[in-house]
Design a protein that fits this description.
alpha+beta; FAS1 domain; seven-stranded mixed beta sheet; 11 helices; 7 strands; 38% helix; 15% strand; globular
Length: 229
């Protein structure tokens, strides 16, 4: 990692070097070039720590869940990375996440042209529980077919908005009961890498993912509002 030279540090090194040379002369000994330069050949522990901190983006600060490290390794950079998602509004960020293609289709009118929530999701601050593609794949085929029909548009909208909570909620405050945009409550239990939603209905794969306007929790199941049984 390239870093800018610190003029003050450089001055201290020169002074230190001169001191060593003078000391060697006053003692009648000889000081080689290797000996005088030795103190500057390796960075100090504090310098290495500063470089590590500079490389760490705030987007990583609140991540929780066993899947975060795996996702970061699979998508280390670009628009779909942890850092890349933090720079875009939530619907745009989700569209760049390779684990959320089915959710993006559902909220953007691709699954059902009568349901398009993109502008709504991008237009305010939210906490979003985002089912990954495997969660949608687990839905019965007949359910997916129903959601694609004009009659299924209201049901699809109800299910999707049940995954959204007004305002951003960080992982250290997410445990508890929350009112969703849909109008019914969901409950989050556990802490750190063992967050569960509605009992054992869903597990948080990776949470605390920041976007420009939302905090996202990737989950392994599609949630159903209590009124839908």
């Amino acid at each position: 990692m390239l870093t800018k030279k610190n003029p003050k540090m450089a001055g201290l090194v020169l002074v230190g070097t001169a001191t060593l040379v003078l000391a060697g002369c006053s003692m009648g000994g000889s000081t080689t070039a290797d000996e005088t330069m030795e103190p500057t050949t390796a960075p100090s522990a504090s310098e290495e720590s500063m470089e590590t901190e500079a490389a760490m983006d705030p987007a990583y600060d609140n991540l929780v869940g066993a899947g975060c490290a795996m996702y970061d390794e699979a998508v280390p950079d670009g628009a779909g990375s942890i850092v890349g998602m933090s720079q875009d509004p939530v619907a745009v960020a989700a569209s760049n996440n390779p684990m959320l293609t089915q959710l993006v289709a559902a909220v953007s009118g691709q699954l059902n042209p009568d349901v398009d929530l993109v502008d709504t999701l991008n237009g305010d601050e939210f906490t979003v529980f985002a089912p990954v593609d495997d969660a949608f794949a687990a839905l019965p085929a007949e359910t997916v077919e129903m959601l694609q029909t004009p009659e299924g548009a209201e049901t699809l909208s109800t299910v999707l908005t049940y995954h959204v909570i007004p305002g951003q909620i960080a992982p250290d405050a997410i445990a508890g009961t929350h009112m969703t945009v849909q109008g019914e409550e969901l409950m989050v239990e556990g802490d750190a890498d063992e967050l569960m939603v509605n009992g054992d209905a869903a597990t948080v794969v990776c949470g605390g993912v920041q976007t420009a306007n939302a905090t996202v929790y990737l989950i392994d199941s599609v949630l159903m509002p209590p009124s839908m049984g």
